[in-house]
Automatic annotation (TrEMBL), chain A:
The gene is LOC110493456. PANTHER family: CENTROMERE PROTEIN M (PTHR34436:SF1). It is found in: Chromosome, Centromere; Nucleus. Keywords: Centromere, Chromosome, Nucleus. It comes from Oncorhynchus mykiss. InterPro entries: Centromere_Cenp-M (IPR020987), P-loop_NTPase (IPR027417). This is Centromere protein M.
Amino acid sequence: MSLLKPFSKLPGLNTANILLVENEEQFQQKLADTVVLQEKTVNVNVRLARSLPLPMENEESRPRIDLVVFIIHLTSELSFQSAETSLKYLDPGYFQGKVCFLVTSARNVSVPPERLVSVRKLAASLHCPLLCAEDQTTEGVTTAAHRLLAILKVAAGLVPMATGLYLSTLTRCTVPSDIDQQNFE
Amino acid sequence: MDDSTKHILQRLMRRIPSQMLQTMLGKWAHLSREDLHSLDFTQPKWVLTEHLLALCEENGLRVKHITELEMIYIIENPNQGMWHGFQLLDAEEDAPSIELTQFKEQFKANLTELISHVSIKIKKHTDEAIWIRVAWGDNFTKPYHLKPTYVVHHLQTPYVFVTGLTSKYKPLLNQTEFCHTGLSSGHKIWLYEGRSPQWTEPHRHQRPSDEAVPTDPNIEKEQAENTENRLQMACEAFGDGTLPQLQKAVYKLETKFRDNSNKTLTGREEPFRGVVEFASTNLLESLRHCVSSGMASTPVTPLLSSITQKGRNYFVITDKGV
């Protein structure tokens, strides 16, 4: 199986590489443009993919991926399933602070609440942070890019005294035990 | 002018938007130049209507003149109602082409035979199409002009477009039409339902030219080849550029029911009748997007691609195929 490995290549100087995985290929482009524009001090490379595994042809030219972000649109069940199947193609080394889940349309009334619950459970079981983003407005995209950049810089080792593993213990998603009951009392 | 005529004119004036009014009245040519100049088009429409009514009374215009104006308006703006397209079958190869005046007489004669009170207007628009306006009446009542039927027949093609036809008068229209060119009007297949009485020839589309989309060198796509393939297939099936605005595609199913979980319906001899309808504000555009974004599996299934290939949006699906 062609797993994506976190440490098999050498890092670049003052460089951070992020991989955005999204089944619909809509939000990732906007996010990529904003991320690249926002960051001035560090050289950020963004790779876009629809799902894993990544094609073998790019194996040579691909740099070391510091952070893998799975973008899940809660409005589509297919989005979640595609992300789940892609997870199998990641080396376990990634799950120590180099994977992040980004969820859109969490406030949408027409979305079944069970879907967000299952995403939360998935993120919690993998010890990864779960971010919610608003993809329809520019402020939402900018905010999401800002947060991703913060996590990326830590994961790429560019922030002194902080590592991805350390950050992920603080930011990882947790699921309270009564989440299945959905009480509002 | 009697009340009903005035009423028809008022309704028509309300329908025509103010910007087009001047051109329409100019084309109408039933008002003299001085009369046309005397109309002040900057006034509010109801004032204009009163003025126009007065002018029509002066000139002694009658219902048939007013329906001419309506016809001019509809020809210029056919996108108002829903058109149904039909293809006439059994066209004889060497059917003698018939002169327009003869056709007009024959058509009018045939239709008035069936129902005595009809008002028919036939007009040849450019060289390609004949527009027919029919207002239906009863054997006892005068024709009702507020709900006319328009028929467009593109010459040299077996295609006919109809709008505003109720099921009450459908068989009458069927019986009269087009018996002259050897096209049997009894056998029509319903092809198309949309906003314009136009025909776009279905044709196979080429691969779109590679546009240079300016991308940041820092952003790179991993699976660019897949995306390209999908885009190409979408364009092959549905074409590049703007597509005709189709609102629906209807598939009438006459296939056997096949689902292992439902034992009562599977395995019956007679086909399971059903109708699948795809409706959208712009159906072809959304189907093309479905294919290019990967929502629909590629290669494009012939069910969808046959909409553009065969140029129809009404299909009957049997077990043998579309």
